Amino acid sequence: MPIAIITGASKGLGRALAEALAARGWDLVLDARTAEVLKGTAAALAGHGTRVTALPGDVTDPAHRSELVAAAWQLGGVDLLVNNASALGAEPLARLDGLPLDGLRRALEVNVVAALGLVQEALSLLRASEAGTVITVSSDAAAEAYETWGGYGASKAALDHLAAVLGEEEPRLRVWAVDPGDMATDLYAAAVPDDADPRPEPASVVPAFLRLLDERPASGRYGAPSLLEGR
Hints:
The chain is an alpha/beta fold. Helix content is 47%, strand content 15%. The protein is built from eight helices and seven strands. It has a seven-stranded parallel β-sheet with strand order 3-2-1-4-5-6-7, sandwiched between helices. Strand 5, helix 5 and strand 6 form a beta-alpha-beta unit. The chain starts with a strand and ends with a helix.
């Protein structure tokens, strides 16, 4: 069975994607910071009959990243790495003139440095896979200027660029930066707590990720809404 590492997998998009892959028979190594929530997610996914390893921890910890890759190696390797764990940098979001610099450092550390560190840790196993794939979860804030989204958007823009360069440097892999679009997630609620407008559930965009895995287009940046519309 193919094997995936998914960070930030206890809820939201990470859990929805893990659920879809488990239903397809993938074995999974899952990461999140909240141990009890991650444990519940892993128990639910194990009902699909696949192997699920849940490892709570912080992706900024090099030892934790090594533990994730070692767990995947024990299952048989790494076919897919999904860098989904994210930090906002400020909760709620703040204008640049008041953005805490420590918060910006945290966003860059989680969204960029840790993501690259996990890629580096898993790269030999990804290269050994016949279908080695890296997915980095992006945001429209990486490409558009929205008031108060500057710190988070800058970190996602940096992640997009790392993904683009990785795709050039590793032509045998598929490296996709995917903008999932608006979703009803805890991250968004923390970012803009006063926004009560309804948003799509994370499971609604998972078919876009599955389409990429099925069709395996060239490395690059993709938007889930366009993939769902068939463009």
